[in-house]
Amino acid sequence: MAVLRVRISCRGGLLGLAVVFLCCTGSVQSSGQSQDSEFTFLLPAGRSECFYQTAVKNGTMEVEYQVIAGAGMDVDFTILSPKGVRLIIESRRSDGLHVVEPMEEGDYEICFDNSFSRFSEKMVFFEIIIEGQGGDVGGDDEFPGIEEPDGSLLEYKLDDIRESMDSLHRRLERSRQMQTVLRAFEARDRNLLEDNLWRVSFWSCASVLVMLCVALTQVYTVRKLFDDKRRVCT
Fold this sequence. Notes:
Blueprint: E1 4-10, E2 22-31, E3 34-43, E4 47-55, E5 60-69, E6 75-80, E7 86-93, E8 95-100, E9 106-113, E10 122-131, H1 152-225
Antiparallel strand pairs: 1-4, 2-3, 3-10, 4-9, 5-8, 5-10, 6-7, 6-9
């Protein structure tokens, strides 16, 4: 099982003043060939955070991220190899999907940077899918109590059952991953709608106040025009 480690870097501030708050605990699941890790965390303003994912050579590492809350809905994103080579660089993006084929074994660094924002913190969701580690899914160890019977026909039938179960497992795992991503999209859209609702309500109230002030000013001005205080001598 791959281990995901976290490093927090502070730019322009004291290291002890802010600690990343994990809004949802990441879940790591290992199923032989594929390994899935997903996290939702709060990235403070003016800071960056890096995660480390162990990968083997000739495998596949898929990284998908989304900014689901925060002003601007954007972060800087970087993936570095174990030797420090920048594999992926993105600036001011709200979401992204990248597939990296590790050419060397080691810890790959995945960084999210919010140092360009001085006041707004961002809530970020990301998911890491590792393929090609741990051997084939559903090997002989999956069925310790089943012995292959004699005869080529029964052997082929057992292999077909194993292949069908492996295919079903991969599809179910992929469906679960897609549902997780869709939930992240839903959370981001809901936060955006709530933010827009607050802005519309605020400016609507401001417009009503301005209209009332203008109406009162007009009434006062008209009354002053017809207010004749001159004395008439008879």
